[in-house]
Amino acid sequence: MPDQSARAAAAVDSRRLWEDLRNLAQLGARADGGVGRLALDENDVKARLWLVEQGRALGCSVRMDAAANVFLRLPGGDENLPPVVTGSHMDSQPAGGAYDGAYGVLAGLAALRAVHEARIATRRPLEVVAWTNEEGVRFSPGTSGSACFVGVRSLEETRALTDGEGISFGEAADACLARLEAQGVPTADFATPMSAFVELHIEQGPVLERAGARAGVVTGIQGVSWFEFTVRGTANHAGTTPRAARRDALEGACALAVALREQARDDADETRFTIGRFRVSPDSVNTIPDEAVFTVDLRDPDQARLDALEATFRDLAAGEWAGCSVEVTRLSRIDPVVFPDAVTGAVAEAAERDLCMEAPRLMSGAFHDAIHLARHCPTGMIFIPCKDGVSHHPAESITPDQAEDGARLLAATLVRLAEVA
Amino acid sequence: MPDQSARAAAAVDSRRLWEDLRNLAQLGARADGGVGRLALDENDVKARLWLVEQGRALGCSVRMDAAANVFLRLPGGDENLPPVVTGSHMDSQPAGGAYDGAYGVLAGLAALRAVHEARIATRRPLEVVAWTNEEGVRFSPGTSGSACFVGVRSLEETRALTDGEGISFGEAADACLARLEAQGVPTADFATPMSAFVELHIEQGPVLERAGARAGVVTGIQGVSWFEFTVRGTANHAGTTPRAARRDALEGACALAVALREQARDDADETRFTIGRFRVSPDSVNTIPDEAVFTVDLRDPDQARLDALEATFRDLAAGEWAGCSVEVTRLSRIDPVVFPDAVTGAVAEAAERDLCMEAPRLMSGAFHDAIHLARHCPTGMIFIPCKDGVSHHPAESITPDQAEDGARLLAATLVRLAEVA
């Protein structure tokens, strides 16, 4: 079996993978070198049609589901066994790069091609999936396709999401599905069984690059809580109101922000605390603000620490800040996911034995479709480094060698999980 | 002479003043009870035409100047002497109240009526002026009329200011002047000599109300500096970037804001420090901000203290804040003004001797047209309390008794300054 997985890794056509990446980046290409391909827009639909073509050329059967997720399937020796699935998403940020998501789909395609061309007969079928609307830019929240597939969100609520122009996810998905149907792509149900799911992705962070690692075994996905803090004071004239008579919402918000950040400061540098939005009203140079609203994005691999920090945050907010009151709302919460040894072990062994590659273990700081798949089947992820850890930006970048490393590791992992007949 | 000034105070028709306030508030009345009368808009023009009518009914000569300032003049015993002038502005904030500015003009009219009806013959002429675009909302910066009148800004640069719809101050002023000209109002030069200028205004702060005072002798206008601080870091993913790898512009901005505020904290509670605008980019929940921009409105009666604080602010900004660099820009600076004893003394004596009123001395925290007039002639101001110190808001409020107190004090002050023949 190790022989077969190493063979699959070696059979990856990294030149073709790089061509595919360049070609896909043309769909939604930006003048600044970035990619803006929003979920279910014309370029995203074209990307799906192109993927279907590639799959068929390789001898895959193709299917779609009601959330416009697209699957390519390479038959296994035992078609009664659930498939080993890989994939990611093809939509991007409006000013995004060519690799976030797209790389996972195209490297999956490259892995299936390698298995096919090396004539490796796996017991289980192999599939590549492109999940719909991971980014959540055009329709919010994101990870729509994977969330509907596993059932953590209903198709109805997802279809009702609307974009900035009032077009619903449902309308956009129907239009996309009609184009796929015209190409003879049949529809399948959600939640079809999977033997395992492995998502390959750029790290979107600096850890692997700083460690000089070629790939990483992702051990899970951090839990994340989003909070909104609203600090309420009294608007007044900046020139005429003595300090003692003020209830300055901005003063309270800054002091509270500093205090919250201090609480989240851990020696191990594992907890991630970010205030990303901060707005003040009336936002006038000479008016004391009556309201300041800011968000906190709090992440930690440890659920107990997330809970403890939330309790501390609520205690702090219950106090008075520059005479102002504070309201805390939890906007969302996703519990940490720990990937099972069955999958992380397969990735680690493929790295070590098939590729002689050191692949450190790390948690994912970002969401991925894998967070939902983890509820559905044994799931894991592989990361490759990206330049300066940058993503969601036109400057997002990987080298052809890095693209090859990840695709080879993915191919070997898939063969290990799918077993050679 | 005290007899005549006390007689003038007693002759104020406070009922009619209150009616005038109610009538003027109809021009630009808002559904919420506030007033939105922007500079040189249809309501502001109508207010000028109405003021001209009132002046003529009282036997005043009227005139206008190229900035659309309107003057009513009650003759004095010696028409060769420069007049004693009072007045304020009639434009308001978009969601303003009925008293900020308008009260000073209408109480001036009431004072002239009182002098006229009590047949008090002053040596110097008495004038009421309505200055154009004090608020600076439609055309920014404000205090346009008084700034052009005294020559601190040129008419040319003021005429070039444009509103949100691309209409210039010059076009709007010309249209207003044509309407006034059609009523036979002649044009006069800027910078005509004045013997004194006294502006009556609501305090727009809580000091008099908290002291239980009916009026205040304004000793000067605080100096004010406006700064903009731009904190620059690096945008990155909130979930994937360890704390040690961050340069978080919001973290730096909050820490800097707290430090600046601490430096401006004086025991006497005279320095006013306000951060009114605060913006962060890209303003996304899960992105570490790469830029945070905030303003500081800093006021102090003491020029040396303003200078020292500016130097301290620049020293602080030269440091590193959460790894970020900081740029400081001074947006504007107006030096403090101290009103001369000749005028503050006349106000204080009128309060004490003519009205048996305790009128504490206080600095003005807000700008007023008087800040420019102080460069032109001996200038002073009178404040009356307003409810909760609130202004620039539909809730801005004074009682009829308070309106009467201020108008009586103004009438007595004007007679004292204009001398009885």
TrEMBL record, chains A, B:
Zn(2+) 1 binds at residues 89, 100, 201. Residues 220-318 form the Peptidase M20 dimerisation domain. This is N-carbamoyl-L-amino-acid hydrolase. The keyword Metal-binding applies. NCBIfam families: hydantase. Its EC number is 3.5.1.87. Zn(2+) 2 binds at residues 100, 135, 392. It is an enzyme of class 3 (hydrolase). Its cofactor is Zn(2+). It holds the Pfam family Peptidase_M20. Binds 2 Zn(2+) ions per subunit. One of its GO terms (molecular function) is hydrolase activity, acting on carbon-nitrogen (but not peptide) bonds, in linear amidines. CDD domains: M20_bAS. Keywords: Hydrolase, Metal-binding, Zinc. Belongs to the peptidase M20 family.
